[in-house]
Amino acid sequence: MTTVTPISFEETDIDRIAEHAGRVAIFVDPEGRLDTGARRVNKLTRGAVARLTESESFGKLKPGDRSVLAYPVGMAAEAVDVICLPRTASVHEARKAGAALAKVRARDDLLVLAGSTRHVAEVAFGIAMRDYGFEDHKSKPAERAGSVTVMSNKPEEAQAAAAPLMAVAEGAFMTRDLTNAPANVLTTTEFADQLAAMEKLGLKVEVLDEKELSSLGMRTLLCVGQGSDSPSKVVVMRWEGGDKDDAPLALVGKGVVFDTGGISLKPGAGMEDMTMDMGGAGVVAGVMRALALRKAQANVVGLVGLVENMPSGNAVRPGDVITSMKGDTVEVINTDAEGRLVLCDVMWYAQDRFQPAAMIDLATLTGAIIVGLGHENAGVFSNDDTLCNAFLKAAGAEGEGAWRMPLGDAYDKLLKSRIADMKNIGGRAAGSITAAQFLQRFVKDGTPWIHLDIAGVASVKSETALAPVGATGWGVASLNRLVADMFEKD
Ligand code: BES
Ligand code: MN
Ligand code: ZN
């Protein structure tokens, strides 16, 4: 797994600043006011910091933006990064500042002179999240080692605030690694093995094989994987950090390790992107990891349906009718609308077994959500305003785009089948909504539920605030926060 850069917090040591050989970072507010560390650097460089901050170009910087003093005289550092950060910086601006530092850090040791900077832990989180590269399959990985030291006026406080954030970064890195992994490497079996390995963090993990899934009646899930040589699996992860009698939050993830479309084969161009079709399961894994690492005081169960959607002589056909675990029958019109077939059985099983207080499913479910919302927002569908608003608030606080979409009977009607209880697709219109309506048919009355369509945000082609190109880890931070806000005792 890609390791999260360890960041240490120390008391400010003026004498060490001149000797630091890597990069040194200082923060200056837009008015050009210098903190202790910045003043020290200014003195060592005989006023270079002040000259820079008085320049016209510095005035154009926005909070979190970076300017640089290359080869500063009077210091061993190869560069001083000067970050514009208001004294009243928001969490988001602090993270952006950290991300700006991570991008230039490369293999150098970084010394951050945070002094009395607000949200130091968030700066560290920004560094940790942006300092990611997926290099598992590079024969010559870029050197990214190198330490990060943050000098702060209150190092213990910063360290304590950073610890749970680093757990989130660890979780997001797991999500990114899983989502970036190619499908020949991340098979259903390998995925299940990696989840089982999280037992050492204190999670209870069970792996259900095809025989068990078959006796549970998960036939819609199994039909998706029946064309593949990789066995279908459902993995159940339990974090029991709350009161024994508290009903858990259930997280359910679509884990299609590769989506060819099946017999309704996808076009060749861009098909390689479908290695990320397990992104929902990746987020569930990442959240469970974060909760275990920070020992969250909540009960959360994570369930993922791991399958591969391949065409073959055994594959499910368009026109086949399959009975779900719930008992409802589904006419498979399009084998490429497979995610909902996987989720409906896992969602039913989750409710049947755990009677959750709430259920949230995540899936790279539809191309249509990308048409609607692009790569900025995930589609949010819910039957419960309280739960939904709490999630939207958490996502807003984490800077992860999320936009609520409608549900309704008129959309549900589009799933009517002549020969079965429902079809697995609506028409061309409202493709993301009919997909959500399909899922809602498997939500029990009284279960507050959110469906997150993350097809546009799980993996991206241009960098985001805290992630490079590729898998983003979208959702780990928001769901972690939702657990803290809504399900954790304090
Ligand atoms: N995995 C895809 C959705 C997807 C598309 C994810 C692009 C990420 C990027 C899903 O299984 C799918 O194929 N959906 C179909 C549904 C259609 C057949 C009703 C789609 O979106 O075209
Ligand atoms: Mn598909
Ligand atoms: Zn898919």
Can you describe this structure?
The protein is of the alpha/beta class. The protein has two domains: 7-153, Leucine Aminopeptidase, subunit E, domain 1; 169-487, Zn peptidases (Aminopeptidase, 3-Layer(aba) Sandwich). The chain has helices at residues 14-17, 36-44, 48-54, 56-59, 91-105, 120-130, 155-180, 188-196, 210-216, 219-225, 279-293, 339-354, 368-373, 385-398, 409-412, 431-440, 476-487, and strands at 7-11, 23-28, 66-70, 79-84, 110-115, 148-152, 204-208, 233-240, 249-259, 299-309, 321-323, 329-331, 358-363, 378-382, 402-404, 422-423, 449-453, 459-460, 470-471. Strands 7-8-10-9-13-17-14-15 form an eight-stranded mixed β-sheet, with helices on both faces. The protein has a six-stranded mixed β-sheet with strand order 1-6-5-2-4-3, with helices on both faces. The chain has a three-stranded mixed β-sheet with strand order 11-12-16, with helices on one face. The mean pLDDT is 97. The chain binds ligand BES, manganese (II) ion (MN) and zinc ion.
